[in-house]
């Protein structure tokens, strides 16, 4: 670990201390590390849509909306290689919330998230993106080829014909 020394004017130092208090940081160092990680992640996202990321996609939807549950399930199955885990909860008689933890190339994740959020009946949706570090990125590269294949072949026109996956079996999407 390296030690860095920085100088801040009194006003900026006071604002940093207030930020630390509001966010619960125990040290200025941890606050700076988090700010730096966030900025570096944004830079990675802007530089490379193929960069491996983790995403947390959350959305609230009206489960009475005609065929919405079916459409959401189809979208998830068409992008199954991105999903690490999902959670579903009932908020009220009409509303459900789903959260999906996803992993894959940034561009594929954001396209998938937008396709879910844009569905008629999805009332609120958001995605939180976290860049993967080097060891995790190596593991994520294994799914990049499959994600690209799904993006190319998972469209409605291919569902009737079926298609091959890199894992050597063909199947049709319902």
TrEMBL record:
Residues 54-129 form the Transcription factor NikR nickel binding C-terminal domain. Binds 1 nickel ion per subunit. GO terms for biological process: response to nickel cation. Residues 152-163 have a biased composition (Basic and acidic residues). Residues 152-174 are annotated as: Disordered. InterPro entries: Acetolactate_synth/TF_NikR_C, ACT-like_dom_sf, Arc_rbn_hlx_hlx, CopG, CopG/NikR_regulator, Ni_resp_reg_NikR, Ribbon_hlx_hlx, TF_NikR_Ni-bd_C. Residues 3-42 form the Ribbon-helix-helix protein CopG domain. Its cofactor is Ni(2+). GO terms for molecular function: DNA-binding transcription factor activity; nickel cation binding; sequence-specific DNA binding. Ni(2+) binds at residues 77, 88, 90, 96. Gene3D superfamilies: ACT-like. Chain A, domain 2, Met repressor-like. Residues 164-174 have a biased composition (Basic residues). It comes from the Bacteria. Transcriptional repressor of the nikABCDE operon. Is active in the presence of excessive concentrations of intracellular nickel. Belongs to the transcriptional regulatory CopG/NikR family. Homotetramer. This is Nickel-responsive regulator. It comes from Acerihabitans arboris. The lineage of its organism: Bacteria, Pseudomonadati, Pseudomonadota, Gammaproteobacteria, Enterobacterales.
């Amino acid at each position: 670990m390296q030690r860095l020394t920085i100088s801040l004017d009194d006003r900026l130092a006071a604002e940093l201390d207030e930020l630390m208090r509001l966010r619960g940081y125990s040290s200025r160092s941890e606050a700076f590390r988090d700010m730096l990680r966030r900025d570096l992640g944004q830079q990675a996202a802007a530089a490379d849509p193929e960069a491996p990321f983790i995403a947390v996609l959350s959305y609230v939807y009206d489960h009475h909306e005609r065929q919405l549950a079916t459409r959401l399930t189809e979208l998830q199955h068409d992008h199954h290689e991105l999903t690490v885990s999902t959670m579903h909860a009932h908020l009220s008689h009409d509303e459900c919330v789903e959260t999906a933890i996803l992993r894959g190339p940034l561009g594929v994740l954001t396209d998938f998230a937008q396709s879910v959020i844009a569905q008629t009946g999805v009332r609120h949706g958001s995605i939180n993106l976290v860049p993967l570090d080097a060891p995790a990125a190596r593991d994520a590269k294994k799914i990049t080829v499959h994600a690209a294949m799904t993006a190319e072949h998972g469209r409605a026109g291919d569902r009737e014909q079926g298609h091959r996956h890199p894992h050597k079996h063909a199947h049709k999407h319902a």
